[in-house]
Amino acid sequence: MTQDVIFQTLGTLSGQSIGVVTLNIEKALNALTLDMVDAMQVQLTRWKSDDSIACVVLNGAGEKAFCAGGDVRAIYHASIANPNNITEEACEFFTKEYQLDYLLHQFGKPVMVWGDGIVMGGGLGLMAGGSHRIVTDRSRIAMPEVTIGLYPDVGGSYFLNRMPGKTGLFLGLTAYNMNAADALYVELGNYYLNSDEKEPLFDAMAEVMWSQDNAENHQRLSDLLIDLSKQHIATLPTSHLQQFQQQIDLLMAGDILDVHYQLSTLNTELDWLKRAQKTALAGSPISWHLIFEQAALGTELSLADCFKWELGVSVNCCSMGDFCEGVRALLIDKDRQPKWLFADVDAVDANKVTQLVTSPWAEDKHPLADFT
């Protein structure tokens, strides 16, 4: 039986080792299952305290994806069987996924993420947790949750709100597919290599003189990646996000009804913006409201508090939002004709939004209460 996630250690000239995590469900674009999350949590926790491990690498099997999100089918089936109830399956999956993401953010040792191919949803949660995030000529990065009645979770409440101007709001509403240059612009990626350079990179990492000092190891990995990536900077594609930042900010200006009107009446010849417009306007009206609630959090909340907020909203979406219908239309029946709870953004009941963003747990009973 093939393992869904593979753990290996690579020896180096310095005597230290590199821990390598390979997501290994190529046919499912390496989407995360609960078993994969559990296995990674155990192994990464072990490596974090293992003095012989200098650095950790996350990558995906095959050439199509690093990780295309999480496996939401199990949550869907549990939620359909228990309407209007928070299910154990939803609570367990999101809790463990966020615990894994938070572990990566707090890892201490360098965590290098090979963000080649599709990086979406849950994959972006892993990538954002890395200290050294590599994008390639094949990287396609997005948060497409608006299409299934969710919102950009996995830490999106933290990193989207720290992007230039209104870019985070735009990415959440439109599920826009970022290329490498876009990802570098919004700082989801911080190094660029060609997709065929993974093996040479691993070889070069084996020759780094790693030490027992985390700060030194961060610097040595940074030095290596700067050296390898500088030859490619001139060949970077255009970043639409950077080039059209001013127009994006104008398009996203105002309250939710302003933005909906601006997107509805937008007349553009730009194909990428047409796709973004179409996706946003077809998305869940509830998701729109949640994405605006998320943007309103600003930059005040800590990463820990962002994950706590997200966990409540995510489990609520599964029990009383548009999530089940969105998953049905996109992934189960695949008719792409979702019947959202509300006809449009203007029709969404404010009480429903309040319910969705209200945590189902008392603070001391929160599943992520130990996040600090």
Structural notes for this entry:
By secondary structure, the chain is an alpha/beta fold. It contains 17 helices and 9 strands. The strands form 2 sheets. It has a 6-stranded mixed beta sheet, with helices on both faces. Strand 1 and strand 2 (about 15-25) form a beta hairpin. Helix 1 (about 35-50) packs parallel to helix 3 and helix 3 packs antiparallel against helix 15. The longest helix is centred in the N-terminal third of the chain and has 18 residues, at about 90-105. The mean pLDDT is about 95.
Give a quick precis of the structure.
With 372 residues, the chain is of the alpha/beta class.
Topology (SSEs and partners):
Blueprint lengths: L4 E7 L5 E7 L10 H15 L4 E8 L4 E3 L5 H9 L6 H18 L5 E5 L2 E3 L1 H7 L3 E4 L4 E3 L13 H4 L7 H8 L5 H6 L5 E2 L5 H9 L7 H16 L10 H4 L1 H7 L4 H9 L6 H12 L2 H12 L6 H18 L2 H10 L17 H8 L15
Mean pLDDT comes to 96
* Order of strands, widest sheet: 1-2-3-5-7-9
End-to-end distance: 39 Å
User: Quick one: overall form?
Assistant: globular
CA radius of gyration is 20 Å
Q: What attributes does this structure have?
A:
single chain, 372 residues, alpha/beta, six-stranded mixed β-sheet, three-stranded parallel β-sheet
